[in-house]
Amino acid sequence: MNPSPQHSSRTALVLGGGGSTGNAWLIGVIAGLFDAGVDVTDADLIVGTSAGSTAAAQITGATPPQLLAQALEAIPPRRSGPIGPDGGRPAAGAVADHMERLTRIIAASADPADLRRRMGAAALETDAAADGSGRWRSIVAARLPRQEWPAQRVLITAVDARTGEPVVFDRHGGIELVDAVAASCSSGFAYSVGEGRYIDGGYRSNAENADLAAGYARVLVLSPFGGRSLTPPEWGTHLSTHLDDLRANGSTVETVFPDSDAEYLFGPDAMDLSLRAPAARSGYDQGRAIAGRIAEFWGRDG
Prior knowledge:
The chain is an alpha/beta fold. It is 39% helix and 13% strand. The chain has nine helices and eight strands. It has helices at 19-35, 51-59, 64-71, 92-108, 112-125, 132-143, 177-184, 239-248, 276-298; strands at 11-15, 45-48, 153-160, 166-169, 191-193, 196-200, 218-222, 252-256. Strands 1, 2, 3, 4, 5, 6, 7 and 8 form an eight-stranded mixed beta sheet that branches. It is globular and about 50 Å long. Residues 1-6 and 79-91 have low confidence and may be disordered.
């Protein structure tokens, strides 16, 4: 689902996945840029994956300062408990178990399509309780300033759990915004939308899915995971490969990765809600620091 040629003079903002801390960092960077006079929320296209899908819905429904204030709210220290659609903060051991399973499935997969099918099958086998999707939908809905799709073009990624086929939701597809975001963020179970079942958009290709910005003149990629991927480079799904393709086809691309002293926020503790405030502050400071460079890059056509 690539943009048509009429988008060739426009801007695209790509928001990558990265857990709860990744979402806070994305909001922080965008708010830091905004406070420095650079509003990237006016992009002609916004691509959101997993935590980035939540950020995409948030920045089109509220101002960056409002979102930053929420991200900076104090959160109690993490409690122990398993990963699941219950809104809890999983123990580091549960996150490690999830990563171990993902690594094992990647090693057994022949290619990206095979990986998607295997991840979907695993999610269906270890499905949540019957009301899991309903609980998860309520949690996601509470995070969104608005429940309606914006008029602005927003693409939200997911994967069909039954077929392994990549899915891209937008406002024309008949799926409500909250369901699109909930599906894109569903890494531990298969989220139900009507008769469909979906898993995390990060399994579509990678945590950013920047290939969806093809045809846009200027593409800004905010990646909490710094473009890292567990899949083999020869699969051609890494962010670096997508960026090379974008540039080869005429796009000018800028990337923003977390500063090295903040990388610990986006590893095993990425789902720790108590780390959202530090991640948001780090992103905000970084956004302010790079505002000059991004302003020159982002200059809009008159």
